Amino acid sequence: MAGFDKRVSSYEEAMAGIEDGMTVIAGGFGLCGIPENLIQEIKRRGVKGLTIVSNNCGVDGFGLGILLEDRQISKILASYVGENALFERQMLDGEIEVVLTPQGTLAEKMRAGGAGIPAFYTATGYGTPIGEGKEVREFNGKHCILEESIVGDFAIVKGWKADHYGNVIYRHTAQNFNPMAATAGRITVVEVEEIVEPGELEPSQIHTPGIYVDRLIQGTFEKRIEKRTLREG
């Protein structure tokens, strides 16, 4: 609805309605552009049995990694295990179901879900364990597997700036999975560094239109660096 104010005043209000067993789609890549405060609120609530859809699962003690500490996640769809030793241990011990998904396929699962497309064909993964048990068709001489799209009960997203109506701009590489995730939640919650007055954002610069956003909150962020690399000399 045009002109609808999406702002909420607390993280408790932002994540109201999340329950055990829900599917949560989380934006971010590594520790870049992750909705860290919304993740903290999920941890505080102690909900269990979550299915998480995200590029990776944060690191030990930060990002989505904190949800592993109390075993709040039962299943995760991710493109890699990353720098998280606890995630790796729980996966190898069979405590958590991990569906490793090619990165582009994961992004398209979110985008297609947000666009109302139930499934799509891709050549990625054909002839590998990724494609086992999936429908195969041939297009222009190339074998493709059928991948189902994803829609989450919640999508949690990190933006840079937004206006009251939930129009969002992401900063540089923090775009990563956030724009796709924002479209794919039945309830989409966005936390941003700054909320501005309506009309202050240049319309051509908006990445996520407010029609996709249900709740908006301004937060402060730690912005950790996952792996620092320095040049000698």
From TrEMBL:
Coiled coil spans: none
One protein family per Pfam: CoA_trans
Listed SMART domains: CoA_trans
Keywords linked to the UniProt accession: Transferase
Record's keyword annotation contains Transferase: yes
Key word Thylakoid present: no
GO molecular function, one term: CoA-transferase activity
Matches recorded under SUPFAM superfamilies: NagB/RpiA/CoA transferase-like (SSF100950)
Family designation: Belongs to the 3-oxoacid CoA-transferase subunit A family.
Protein name: CoA transferase subunit A
